[in-house]
Specification:
alpha+beta; 2 domains; single chain; membrane; DUF2156 domain-containing protein; aminoacyltransferase activity; 28% helix
Length: 372
Amino acid sequence: MPPTATPITPTTTSPAPAPASAPGPAAGPNPAAAPNPAAGPNPAAGPDTVLHAIRTHTRSENPSAFLAMSRGTLAFTAPGLDGVIAYRQAGQYLVQLGGPFAAQGDYLPLLERFLDHARSRGLGVVGAQLQRADAEIYARQGFTVNQFGASWVVHLPGFTLQGGRFMRMRNKISRAFRNGLEVSEVPAQDHAEAIREIDANWLRSKGEAARPLEFLVGEIGGPGQAHRRLFVGTIGSRPVGYISYSPVYGERAGWMHDLSRRIPESSPGLMEAINSHVIEVLRAEGCPWLHFGFTPFTGLDQENELPGHSPAFQWLMHFLWDQGEALYPAQTQLAYKDKWAPQAPIPEYVAFQGDTASLAAFAHIFRACNAF
C-alpha cells in the first residue's frame, strides 16, 4: 500500500477527555487509540492514530505536538512504520509541524518516505518548529537548519506571583477582579456563540487585513477538543475573554497556554487574571509545567545554531525580531510570556531541503498558517 496523507477528521468514537491533572506519560496511551499493527497503515490516519503517536513518541520533547490534532492538518503514514508526520500543503511546499512523531527505529524511514512522497509530486519540504533532537537529525540528512525562535515554559511547583517583579501584574489582576471578572472552566460546545463573539471582536481590533492564524497556533473545536481545557472570563455574566489550554506530553508533561482572545474594550489585566486563576487550578492538581508555546524570532542565540546553518537566514531572524512586527508581533507576544518569569528558552528550528535556506519555503510556512 502507498503512504497515506489525509486530514485529521473526527471519528465516530469521541476521544476520552484529558485528565484533570497534567497529562503525563505515566497515564500511557489510550489502548483504544493505538493503531492495530496487524491491520497495516490506518487508511484514514484519523485522530486516534495521531493522538497515539504524539502521546507515545515524545523523544523530541515537542511541547506543540498537540497542534497535530488540528483540523486541516494532514497526517502522513506509511505501511509497517509506527508514527505520523503532521503537515499542510502551501503552494509547492509541504510544511511540516515538528519532526516525525515516530518510534526511534521508524523515524528516518518515515521521513524518507515523506520526502519521496513530496518528490513524486514535484513538491518541496520545509520543517517548522523542529526541536533540537529533530534539528540534529535533519542536519545530518542534508537539510539546512537554523534557529527559528523559541518556546517558553514555567515550572509550577515553585511558582509564585509574590515579590517586586510581579507587583505591576498583581495590580492589573486585582483591578480585573475588582471590575467583576469571574473565571470558570467550561465545555467549549456550550459556549460556541460567546466564543464566536469574542473572536469577531478580537479580529476586528487587529485591522481590516487581519486574518486568524492556523496550523502553528491552536484552535477550539475539532477532533482534539475533548482533550483541551477552556477557561472563560465573564464580567456581569457577559463572556469577555478566554484561554484554551492543550495537553503536553513527555518529560515536561503539563498544559500549554494556547489560544487566547479577549474583547478589546474589556478590563485591563483580563488575560493575566484568567491565567493566574488557571495556574492555581493546575498547581492544586499537581501539574508540573505550564507551557507558553513557540514564538518566532525570540530566544535567538549563536550557541543554538547547528553546523551548516545559514548565516544570512540567521541575520534575517534577528532582523525580523527588530523589524518584523507586520509579519508577526514577536515582541508583543514575548512581553506577555516574559511576565510569568519563564525558564531559559527552548530553541526551535526550521529545516530547508538542500544547502540553502530558501526564502520561498520560509514564506510558505506563514502561508500555511493563513498569515497571507
